[in-house]
Each structure stands twice: as C-alpha cells, then as structure tokens.
Amino acid sequence: QFSSRVATEDVDRIRKRKLSSSSSSQEVDVTVYLPKVKPHNKKLNGICLHVHGGGWIWGDSQYQVAHRCLEMTESMNVAVVSVEYSLASTICNDNGQIFDPVNEVVTALNWIENTGADELNTKPVYVGSGESSGAQLLLLSMLKRRDRTDGMPSLTSTWKCLNLVYGFYDLSGTPSMREDGNDSSPICGNELLCMADLYYEKILQEGNHDEQCNKKIDRQHPSISPMYANLSNLPPALISVGTADPLLDDSLFLANRYSICGNDVEMVLYEGGEHGIGHFGLQEDDEMGRRAREYTLQFMKRYLEEHDTC
Prior knowledge:
Blueprint: E1 14-21, E2 24-33, E3 47-51, H1 66-76, E4 79-84, H2 101-120, E5 126-131, H3 133-146, H4 155-158, E6 159-165, H5 175-180, H6 189-205, E7 209-210, E8 215-216, E9 237-242, H7 248-260, E10 265-270, H8 287-306
Parallel strand pairs: 3-4, 3-5, 5-6, 6-9, 9-10
Antiparallel strand pairs: 1-2, 2-4, 7-8
Helix pairs in contact: 2-3
C-alpha cells in the first residue's frame, strides 16, 4: 500500500525485501527505491541508507516515506534502502518478540557494504539519511559500525556523509524540549518526552545494561543517547532543525560535540521551522520546507560526486 502521492507508474520502482548480514543472524525488512531510468550498464551513484522517523512508535519504510524516497533516488541517482525497523508500539516481549531497532539498521548497513552495491548495480559509495528518531537510530548504527574490529574498512572510507534531520539525541530531554511543554505543533515537547519514555522502557525490557558496571542503563547512556557517545571518526554531517522545534537543542548540542570530536559538520537552522519541516505537517511543502529538503539533497549529492571513483 502506498501513499496517494506515489504515481501508479512509479510503483514498479519500489521493492520490498528481507535482508540478512553475513556478520549477523539478524534479518530485517527494507524497501528499496530505484530511479526511473538509467543508461544501460551504467552504475548508479551509490546507495542511501534511509531511516524513517516516527518517535520509535509509528511509521514505516513504504507508505509514510515512499514519495520522499523516490525523490531522493531521482535527485541523487542512487538506490535508497529504507529500513522497516521494529516499533516500540508493536513489539510484545511476552510473545518472544525482540525490540532491537539499532541492530536492525546495522543489519541493513552491513548488507549495503557487503553485497548491496553488486546487487543493486551501484558504485560502492554510501550516504545515510534519517529524520527525528530515525536520525538517532542512524547515528547509533554508525557508531556500532565504526567500532567494529573484524577487518572492515574504516567507516569514513565507505560512508561519505550523514544527513541528520531534527534528530532526537538525548533521551533525558534537552532544555528546549522540556521548556516547550504542550506549546508546539505538530508535535510538542511533552509528546516527544512520552515517546522517549516508551522507547526507554522497551530498551530496559530487553535487559540492556551497562556492561562496565552491570546495572540498568540510564537515559543518557551512549547506547541510546548519542549525544553522550564518543563521536570521533564519523562521516561529515549536515544537521538541520527549525528554531520552533522542541528538539532544537538536540541538534545544536550535537553539532557542537560533532565538531569538537574532530568531524566536519554543517549546522542549518530554519527560522520558525517546526518539527517535521520538509517531511510532514504544514511545513512539509511550503517554501521553507521545500528549500530545507532540497538543501539536504544537494548536500548528499555533493559528497557522492566528490567520491566518484567508478
């Protein structure tokens, strides 16, 4: 099922599939998006790993974001792999289901590096893009990939940039979120805090704990709040947020830490921009929303073109 914003002739460019990784027994569903037409035998420019938003409780890789993923494929001439990660609102631990969205994104990431370029006929050049909770999951997956010690190439040699849009990087709640209360739309600070509560409780139900001190992780633990992680040796990032977004401080603080840790980072603020700018809500397709979305596409295209090795 697709949004009405997906044209009938574009449905054939959208493919659901299940991925597994040689480095993990975990499987994950994804949706793959391809450009309309490409010259015979000419490879696509690369692969964009996409992680949708939704506060860890709603959203999917198809109905919610299909029109946006198709836009990315056309603009950048890439394959887009959007991850259908598990949601806190649908996983029931009593039935043996596992809530592990970060490692599901990692599984997709590993597949992209190991076989994705060959299977999708792309150049071995990769970028990542995530919104809101999806930006948090994307960043956490990149940290896991960076820390691998099994002979894989360095993270920054294969992943050229990250597009982090109005992300949620501190589950304890930054000042702008707590001060917002019920004021903002389409999502207010209190609603975002409730989503963080549900995500955190699900993580605890899975038995996650700090291995160093063998106690339950708190909300600022680096495994769930990337704001407090070691952010060194990560790809260049574009961090975007609106000034009316309750998650404003998350992006401002992360951009500062990202830079201090030695990475290239570009911070873009949209005056009056709400949570969802360029992606949902009243500002999805207004002038500022279109401008914000186009800038993210140009940012990723720039890094794909700079690393055109094939």
